[in-house]
Specification:
By secondary structure, the protein is an alpha/beta fold. It contains 19 helices and 12 strands. The strands form 3 sheets. A 5-stranded mixed sheet has the order 1-2-3-4-5. A 5-stranded mixed sheet has the order 6-8-7-11-12, sandwiched between helices. It has a two-stranded antiparallel ribbon with strand order 9-10. The protein binds uracil and iron/sulfur cluster (SF4). The site of uracil has 13 residues, from helix 14.
Amino acid sequence: MTDTHFENWRIEARQLLQKGIAPSDTYWENNPTFLESDESNLKPLLSPQVPPEFFELAQFVACARDENRWSLLYRIIYRLNHENKNLLKVSVDPDVHRANELAKSVRRDIHKMHAFVRFKKIDIEGVETYIAWHKAEHLIVELGTPFFMRRFGDKPWSIFTPDASAHWDLKTLTFAEGIPQHEFQHRDQFDEVWKTYYKSIFNPARLKIKMMKAEMSPKYWSSMPEAEIIHDLIRNTPLRLQNMANAPKFKAEVPENVSWQDLKKAALKCKACPLAAHATQTVFGEGNLEAELMIIGEQPGDEEDLNGQVFVGPAGKILADALQKANVSRESIYITNAVKHFKFTQTDNRRVHQKAKGSEMQACKPWLEAEIARVKPKVIIALGTTAATAIYGRLLKIKDERGKAYVDSRLAKSLFVSWHPAAILRASSIEEQISRQNELAIDIAQAMNATKV
Ligand code: URA
Ligand code: SF4
């Protein structure tokens, strides 16, 4: 990743500089790796000879797609130390000129990213997630994407480029590998959804047609499916303004610093989202309040709704079986759901489960967070994509992610995902059902083991 590379470059450069090694004696790989170093012996690099402006400039230069950037930066920092501490002011100097040129090009590229990234909404089992594919000229994912966190911080999103990807889970922005364009499978099939999303984020209060035309140069329009709906959007502005003002925002209000019992009492009264209106009752989590392992399901089912307890229906039987196979007692753990009210449609003779919407999940998330904060489990295992999205904040496939520990989380020491019992019940063949059932037991056992390390 760019930042890491820059950090590695800094460490390397600092050592070389202190040994007085001339730029012509250094060789910089395209992506500097961290060689052996003893940081504690090193003096800070930010000496008077290295003005802060250098780092401002360098962070942009470091993102340039130019294989000479690292040697250029070393040359400049060396010359700042040995030749002229005001070198950066000499804009006609070929090194300074080149660095300024690269930095300018990177800045322009970041600006373009901000202007032209288009998210597509995808619904992953009821959780709204936004994804975008962008092809940048430079390596700007780490420098360019925090902007989207500030702008669209209330939605989970991922931005993919061929070089790297950025993922916002409503709490942290993380970076991972990129994907080649041809693998961006959602590219075309979501254009309709993309348009809808564009409508939903389009902010008529800030609508300035002239500015929009200037910013969105027509040469980009052909690749932007929303360009064709701009016309409609402009026409509908006053109505959309009204609608925006009336749009409800749901969020459970969770009392702070109260006991688990009081937390549950408050949750039983929660009507923060529309789900409360149809369900029988809030089904709050339950179990060992000192548990080291927490299991998170999706939402109560029909029986749980009538009973007021988690996992007591058919899915509960599957879970009980897996717990037994994993040799984990239900009394030792804490079990809850990402959403606390049953969502269903009524048919003639039964209530059919429906996925909660992203907004409902978001509304309910404070309860889950409060449970996690109270129980402080060492390990969490999320069953199914709804629960997984609630704790990872991003889309993932259970098939690909089960069995892996995710350790970079504020919620617990490690996070795991596995099959939801309902997905086991729904498996397309008996073989698949059996193998998923086994995998659920294996995954629970693995998560339990992780509490002991
Ligand atoms: N499915 C869940 O995810 N949770 C329950 O409590 C019951 C069924
Ligand atoms: Fe409150 Fe969650 Fe129930 Fe919505 S689903 S009313 S947020 S407890």
